[in-house]
Description:
The structure is a single chain. This protein is of the alpha+beta class. It contains four helices and five strands; from the N terminus they run αββββααβα. It has a five-stranded mixed β-sheet with strand order 3-2-1-4-5. The longest helix has 12 residues, at about 5-15. It is globular.
Amino acid sequence: MTLQDIADRIQAGLSGSQFDGSLKFDCGDDGAIVLAENQASTKDQDADCTIRLSQDNLVKLLTGKLNPMTGVVMGKLKVSGDMSVAMKLGKLLG
Length: 94
């Protein structure tokens, strides 16, 4: 699954929902996905909150196979910036 495929799935999940703020999933050399203005894009830009993780762990996070708190404790993801934006993502993902 490419980052564009993941961004497209996130975008589909955003329909009918409102996501305030901006959030970047930074997958290092694989690229980034940025949620901003209720859009998911693979265009890298600054964001209120950045989550650094591998592309594989991003898929696991978005499919519920990786608990965010467990991911942080195990070092599989690192969060920087405005934590309240990351918390909004948790509510959006359900």
